[in-house]
Amino acid sequence: MEAQNSRLRHSINDPDEFTLTFELVPGRGGRTQEIDRIVQLAKDIAADGRIQALSITENAGGQPALSPETLGTEILAMGSEVIIHLSCKDKNRNQMESLLFGWDRHNLHNLLIIAGDYPKEGYCGFPKPVFDLDTVHALDLLSSMNQKREALQKNHADGGLEISVPFLKGVVISPFKMLESELLMQYYKLHRKVATGADFVITQLGYEARKFHELLQYMKQNQLDIPVLGNVFIPSLKVLELMHKGKLPGCLIPDSLYEQMQWEARTADKGKKARLLRAAKLLAVLKGLGYDGAHIGGPALTFEDLDFVLTQADGFAHDWQSLIADLSSSPSGAFHYYEKDNETGLNSKRETRRQPLPPPWISTYVFSSWVHEAAFEPEGRLYDFCKKVCLWLDETRMRRSLSLFEYITKAALFGCQNCGDCTLGRLAFLCPQSGCAKYLLNGPCGGSHNGWCEVYPGRKKCLYVLAYDRLKPYGLEKRFKSGFIPPRDWSLNDTSSWVNFYRELDNFAKSEDSSHSCTKK
C-alpha cells in the first residue's frame, strides 16, 4: 500500500502526464443510498483507470457528513488513490495531529488543506467554529511531521524499516476574484503556502480561460514552482442558482454565463449535455494552457457523465485555442492582474496598472504605527522605558490594572478580545480575533465576494481586504507575501499582551526563533 500511495506524487510531478482527480462529496449518514451511489461510482472510476485519485470532502458546506477517512479507507482498498480534505474549521491543533497519526497509519497520505466552510446549523443550533489553526499553520504542522518521519527513517535505516511516503500537501487558490485587494491577497497567501511546504495547488472553480491563464503566468513570474490543477466543476441547476446568488462561498457565476446556462436549461435534458460539453472544453483548454492536471467535480454526476466529458475533451484537445471564446465570461468590473491580449483572448505579459491610493492625513493606522514603532520596536525611543514599566507593574499589585488598562484601550481602538497574543502590528492594526470570522492569521480564506466576508455578506468587509487597502498607500501591501504568524497560544488568554511581548512569550517571539516556523526551533 505504501508504494501505491506514491502514484499521485509521481503523476503530478511528471511533465508528460496530465493528472486527473475527481471530487466525491459524502453527505449526512453512513448507510444512505447516496453513499452507496458514491461507492459504486468510485468502483467504476477505479476500474476505468483514467482518474489518478479520488478527492473526498470534509463536511462540505459547513454541514456534518461522513468522515472522509472512512470512505477513503474503502476506496483505497479498491486500488484507487485518495485525497483527503483536511479542514481547519472543526478541529483544534491536538485533534488535527491525532487524526493525522491515524491517517498515516491507514496510508492516507494525500491531503488537501483548506480553511473550510463556516459551520452551518446542526444539532440544537449552530456549532462553535474552531479554526484553531489556519491553512499555513496546518502546512507547517505537516511539514514538521514529515521531517520527523524522515529523521526516524534515517535512524532506523539499518534495521530494515520500510521507506514510508510522507504527506503530500495540496492547497487551494482562487484567481476568480472581483477586487484587486481580494485577488492580490489570494496570490500573496499562495507565496506563504509554498514557503511552508505546499506540494501542489488546485484552483477554486471558475469558467474564464483568461483567469486560469493568469494564475499560471503569476506563478511562473514569481517562481512558485509547484504543480497546479485547474478546477472543472459541473453544476446542477440548483447549485447554479446558489452560485449566482452568492450562496456558495468563493464560487462565482457571471451574469452572462448564468443567462446562457438558463437558456440551455430549456432543452429536453435541462441543459445537462451543454454543461458537460462546457466542462470538456475547459478540460481541453487547461491541458493546452499547460496545467499539470484538472480537478473534476459536480453534484450527482454518473460515470457515464464523466466518460462523456473525458472523451469529448480528448476530441477538443487538438484545437483548444478555438475554445477560448466560449470560456470568456467575466463579471463586469472584475480586476485582472495582466492586461488582455486581444489576439489570443488570454493575457499579455503586461501587468494591469493598479490605481494608487493616496495616504490619509491621519488615521488609526498612522497613529498606531507611530506608537508601535516607539514602544515595541527595540530601536524605538520609548521601548526601554515601556518595557521597564510594564515588567515592573507585572510584579506588583497593579498587574490586573495594567491588563485592564491595555484591554480597554485596545478594545476601543481595535475591538480587542484580550487574547494576550497580539498580532496587530503585523496585520495593519486590524484584530483577527474580532475582525475575521475564521480568526485567520496568515492570509484570507477563499470565501469573500466583492470584498465582503463570506459569513457576513453586505455587513462586514474581509479583514484582509481592509488590510490591503490600509497598507497600499504606503507601498507595504506586499509584506503579506512572506512571514509566518504562529497560531494563538491559548495559555496567554486574558493576560497582558504587552507584558507577554516584553517577556518574549507571545507569537512574535516564536516566529522570530526561525525563518518561518514555530516548529523548527
Q: How are the strands of the largest sheet arranged? A: 1-2-3-4-5-6-7-8
The largest sheet, given as strand count, sense and whether it forms a barrel, is: 8 strands, parallel, barrel
Q: Whole-Å distance between the termini?
A: 34 Å
Number of strands: 10
Q: How large is the share of residues in beta strands?
A: 5-15%
Concise synopsis of the structure shown:
By secondary structure, this protein is α/β, with parallel strands linked by helices.
Explain this structure to me?
Among the domains are: 1-173, no CATH class; 364-442 and 483-512, no CATH class. The chain has helices at residues 7-12, 33-48, 68-77, 93-105, 135-155, 180-195, 209-221, 237-244, 255-264, 272-289, 303-316, 364-376, 383-393, 399-414, 432-435, 463-471, 497-502, 507-512; strands at residues 19-24, 53-56, 81-87, 110-114, 168-173, 200-203, 228-233, 293-297, 338-341, 346-351. Helix 7 packs parallel to helix 10, helix 10 crosses helix 11 and helix 12 packs across helix 13 (383-393). Helices cover 40% and strands 10% of the residues. It is an alpha/beta fold and 521 residues long.
Could you give the topology of this structure?
Blueprint: H1 7-12, E1 19-24, H2 33-48, E2 53-56, H3 68-77, E3 81-87, H4 93-105, E4 110-114, H5 135-155, E5 168-173, H6 180-195, E6 200-203, H7 209-221, E7 228-233, H8 237-244, H9 255-264, H10 272-289, E8 293-297, H11 303-316, E9 338-341, E10 346-351, H12 364-376, H13 383-393, H14 399-414, H15 432-435, H16 463-471, H17 497-502, H18 507-512
Parallel strand pairs: 1-2, 1-8, 2-3, 3-4, 4-5, 5-6, 6-7, 7-8
Antiparallel strand pairs: 9-10
Helix pairs in contact: 7-10, 10-11, 12-13
